[in-house]
Amino acid sequence: MDITPNPGPEYEFLSIFHLNIRSLRSKISYLEDIANDYDVICVTESHLDNVVSDDEISIDGYQLFRRDRSSHGGGVAVYVSDKLHVQRIHELENDNILCEYIWIKIVSGNTCFFLCTVYRSPSSNANFWDSLEYSIDTAVDINPHIIMVGDLNVDLLVQTDNRCNDLINRFNFTNVITSPTRVSRTRSSLLDPILLRECSSGMSDVIPIDSEISDHLATYVEILLRERSSGTYKRKVWCYKDADFLFLNSLITDYNWQNLFDEISDADYACEKFTEIFSSFVKQCIPIKQVTIRQNDKPWFNSDLRREIRIRDRLWKKAKSGSIHHINKYKRQRNKVNNMKKYARESFFLEVNGFIDTLSCQDSKSFWKLVKLLTKSSGKSSVIPPLLNDVNGLLENNDSSKAQILNRYFTSISNIDQGIEIPQLQMKTDTSLSFIEVTSDDICDILKTLFYNTFILPTLEYASEVWDGCSEGDSYKLEKIHHQAARIVTGLPLYTSIDSLYLETGWMSLKERREYKKLNLFYKIHNRMAPDYILDILPHQIQGSTPYNLRRHDSDYRVPNYRLRSSTLSFLKRKFRPDPVPSHFLVGNRKYNVILTRLRNCCSSLNADLFRVNLTRRFSLLI
User: Fold this and answer.
1) What are φ and ψ of residue 144, in 5° steps?
2) The whole model's pTM is what?
């Protein structure tokens, strides 16, 4: 009888991508689209300098390492996933500005290797090869596992007698890229090799790139590893729409809670028992389903694209067998996925203005959800990188193991040495506070403050969100609730004027809160905290290179355009006017053109509000 051995951990691959991008700043959106497909992204000819900050070219979930050239052109940059333990090795880098390469140490599990991203200018001399050879020689003495990617500007298809081949032969490098990486009408050259030394690789190939992105083909390789963490996780959610609340109420009403509390004297155990019983009732009446949370997905990611990616991954597993048929099928599917990503992103950003315009009138909740999604700043990733276990000296990738390491660290630094005496502090005064009296008025004031912070303030925030998107009658009811809350907090009678209530509490009306939030949103856009497709809505005078003066312009008495007769006779209806947009403006492709025209002419309630508080000089600014 055959016995199947106990399987060990599955081998996984760490993917490395390289592209000669020729100006990283203007093409960062392309890297954001492909970021989830690769663990390490290397770019050459980044064309950056010290004027460009890391925030302008950062990618969520990735650490950035860069080396810029002080003059025009050149430069290299590397993005490494936060899931990897990585460290830059400055000792292997040369200070010469013409020696453009970055050395990075990457550790995953028990595997450690050095990654070198290099760019050689066609005008460089022999000093570049001498410096690179010395750097590789030093790196080999430290770690024999080396990966080198980049643009060497040496055609390895035809040139065999050169310094590059000497380095490959001396250090036993293997070039896994055999196809041309730069193709023109008259010549095909292999300028972007991937050189491996004592590293096991899986798939490696060139990737077609749009000519508007680069005149080079991209290269990638997959390095054999032991383990790899997933970017998704499972979560259980309640299905409140399918809940049976009548049955839940009956279960809660019929249960004898008094006997439970009479039998248990310990308050902690009684609370635990109550929670257990109540949770069992809830689980009987409210269904639970398990969902997959993909926190790294882009807003334009859809189910069709995810299905094609799964097909691509299945074909990739078959292509590892070496079959030419499976490899070609995998390449076709990979190119299809890349094209679908590009189309999905362009379609989303093309229609996002229409979504905003429609939702602002119909669904305020969805409107603000979309706006916050588009205007959020790209901060640092919340993923904790692998941590070194001080007990066994291994890198931990599991979340629970990381938590234990952090708990041990914080408890160790929070311990107080009992042998140290507390120093005697010199008294600054002879007066001391011996008695503190708390009156009933003090308690009432504290309760009112807690009532406002825990109940009223969140309610006002939500009410101000929905105020502009609901009917006039509902808006009036929300304002009445707002006024009643102010009377509860202040204790003032019903005949108190609304202005007195606002003066006493320091609040503002829901309409004013709404306008204030709009101005805050504009301020974020003005300070470039939003993507380009949101910034395009602004007139050029506001989004220019010089920051716009946000002080009030009380001396500007020019009549706004929307009060002039020329605006009344305009063929294009404006949003702030009471009469609706004619139906023939919303037919077919005409709808998209009308929306863009209205945005270019600043025909929105936001721009009118900005004019009234003197944040814009004119109401309508033609772009």
Assistant:
1) -80, -15
2) 0.50
